[in-house]
Prior knowledge:
- By secondary structure, this protein is α+β, with helices and mostly antiparallel strands.
- Among the domains are: 9-100, no CATH class; 180-243, SH3 Domains (SH3 type barrels), CATH 2.30.30; 258-368, CATH 2.40.50.90.
- It is built from eight helices and 18 strands.
- The strands form five sheets. Strands 10, 11, 12, 13, 15, 16 and 17 form a seven-stranded mixed beta sheet that branches.
- Strand 7 (225-230) and strand 8 form a beta hairpin.
- The longest helix has 41 residues, at 125-165.
- It is rod-shaped and about 150 Å long.
Amino acid sequence: MKSLTIVSAPQMTFLDSISSAQVFQSMPFSPDRTKEIQSRIDARLQSGQANDWEVSFLTNMAERFQMYGTNTRLSKAQYASLHKVLKLEREPSSRTSAQTNDVISRPPPKRRTKSYQPKTRPMSVTRVITAPRRAVRRATRQIMVPLVIAVAFFSLIGSLFDTTSSRSTTYSPPATSAPQTARSAYVYVTGTRVNQRDGPSTSDRVMGVLVEGTRVQLLRDQGQWAQIRSDLGNGWMSSNFLSLNRPPTAQPTPQDRGLRASDVRIIDGDTINVRGITPNVRLVGFNAPETWRPSCTAERQIGERATARLSQLVRNAASIEFDRVACSCRPGTEGTDQCNFGRLCGSLFVDGQDVGRALIGEGLAVPYRCGRTSCPPRPQTWCR
Length: 384
């Protein structure tokens, strides 16, 4: 059995790139022919006239002849290329039938796309003259393309901000659940009566109730809850009841206290309802007789007179002003049933005078002063 010539992987790759022919010449070369080929390869490589392909091909051939000498095996395509590059003369064929049998069969190689090698154009006077302009155009393209991309990117970002600002101004918390600070941001309560809690959960304690239109400072967001600062202190409220816009029915502020008579509804001698404010308001600084569940008939009668007199003062007033004040309750209980039966607290002025002072002067009320967090027992002066 004849031995097969072992071809290394790099050599096999090179052979595949030369030709699709897979039958190798079974020469072997004569010593003289081998020396002649090696000499011509060296001369061609040292001449500096070989192109890149020839250098690569002849280098491979030199290594092959150096390794195998007269036993070098070449394919038909390799032998033809070597013959053409070195301009060798044809050597009489000396192959025998035994040598013909020394053939290595290889599977068909995969087709490979020939690498594109741009042709070098000869330099001309016109190309020399126009070279600076071409260089400028190339540099302009290299600068303008990134610039256009950057302008388009910032335009897209700007349009996103414009779209965001053009949306509804209703306050919405960020999608992320991480706490975020919103310094010096103020929002308004939109619910009729909204609980302020000491934590971001419905299971946390209720600090108090804020009515619609109450302006609070937004401290930070956490999911569907917002930490706020109000008259009740720092607490938490559901973001669904907060808005950047003040509701049209918002309560009067100290800077806008003016009311009309139709804005005030009299409940009894010391309790009123102001349009846009929920719930009812207990007037501070005095105490009028009760008309609901009075202790005696005299209290009920005087209480009805106090209610009628307060209605008259409001109806005949040229100017009406209202000031909301904090109730004298334990911290966190204002607006709940644990504080003043859930009522708010305030003072009502008609023509610049506190209505409580007018009722006290007419014997329809008595002074009643509370402390900061509590009130004394109510006087029982009507049933003597």
